Hints:
By secondary structure, this protein is of the alpha/beta class.
Amino acid sequence: xxxxxxxxxxxxxxxxxxxxxxxxxxxxxxxxxxxxxxxxxxxxxxxxxxxxxxxxxxxxxxxxxxxxxxxxxxxxxxxxxxxxxxxxxxxxxxxxxxxxxxxxxxxxxxxxxxxxxxxxxxxxxxxxxxxxxxxxxxxxxxxxxxxxxxxxxxxxxxxxxxxxxxxxxxxxxxxxxxxxxxxxxxxxxxxxxxxxxxxxxxxxxxxxxxxxxxxxxxxxxxxxxxxxxxxxxxxxxxxxxxxxxxxxxxxxxxxxxxxxxxxxxxxxxxxxxxxxxxxxxxxxxxxxxxxxxxxxxxxxxxxxxxxxxxxxxxxxxxxxxxxxxxxx
Length: 328
Ligand SMILES: NC(=O)C1=CN([C@@H]2O[C@H](COP(=O)(O)OP(=O)(O)OC[C@H]3O[C@@H](n4cnc5c(N)ncnc54)[C@H](OP(=O)(O)O)[C@@H]3O)[C@@H](O)[C@H]2O)C=CC1
Ligand SMILES: N[C@@H](CC=O)C(=O)O
C-alpha cells in the first residue's frame, strides 16, 4: 500500500486534533484513497511538555529535521502567529511539500504569496481551517467561483465571541466567566484579545476577500470592533426586546466596484439568518449573481471541527496529486 508521509507543525488543540483524526480514521482513509497516511514528525516549541501518547512519530523542536526529510509529502501547520509559520511553510513549499494550514494570522497576510509560490512549485495549499473552523466555506466559495460571481459575504466568523455572547445572554454569565469557558474548550486564541477585539474575524474576512474577490481592501479602511466593549446589560436588554447582538463580519462590492467591509457587533431581529446561530457555531452567508443566497452553519472552533477541516484538505490534496504522491 503506498504511503503518504506527513509532518504536523504545532501539537496544541488543532495539531492534536489532526493527529487524532488521522489515527482514528486510518482504515477509512486507506479504503477511500488507497493510501496510508503516516505522521512521521511533529514540531513543538517545548519538547518537555507532557502530551498524549504518540506512536511512530518523532517529536522535535527543530524545523530543519522536518524540512530536510525528503520523505515528507505534506506539512500541516497549526502553530501560532505570522512567524515563524510563514517562513516554515515557504521553505516546505520550496522543498516540494503540499501545505495545509489553520493559521489565519499568517494566512490573511501571506496567503496570496504562499498560493503563488505553491503554484510555481506545483504543490497544493489547503486553508479551509483558517476560516470558520469546521464550516467548509473555502471549498464552497472555490466551487461557486467556477461559474458564478460573489457579490457579498456576511457572517459570524469568530466562535469564541459567539460563544461568549450566547453564554452571557442565556446563562447570565459574566464576560470573564464566558471567556474562561471558551478557553477551557480550546476555542480561544493563545491571546484571546484577537477573538474579543474583532481582529480574528477581520483576518478571516480578509482571507475570504482574497478568495472571493481576488483582492483585499486596505486594512486601515475597514472599521473593526469587537464584543469587548459591550456591557452585559446591553446584551440582556436586547434579548428582552427580542433582539440579539451578533458579531458580524461583512464584505461587499459597492456600485463603483470598490470593496467595502466592516466588522463589529450588530443588533439583529428574528427574521435575520444569523439570529439563531448560538454557541461556538459560525455562519457564513454568501450572495452571488446566479445562485442568490447560500448560508453555511457549523462549529467555528475546537479540536475536532478544525482538525477535520484540515484532514478534508489532505484528502483533496491526495485526490488532486495522486501521481506525484505515489513514488514514496
Ligand atoms: N483552536 C481553534 O479552535 C482553532 C485554531 N486555529 C489556529 O490554529 C493554530 C493553532 O491553534 P491552537 O491549536 O488552538 O493553538 P495552541 O496554543 O493550542 O497550540 C499551538 C501549538 O503550536 C506550538 N508552537 C507555537 N509556536 C511554535 C513555534 N514557534 N515553533 C514550534 N511550535 C510552536 C505549540 O508548542 P508547545 O505545545 O510546545 O507549546 C503548540 O503545540 C493557530 O494559528 C490558531 O489561530 C484555527 C482554527 C480553529
Ligand atoms: N479563536 C478562533 C478559533 C477558530 O478560528 C475562534 O474562536 O473562532
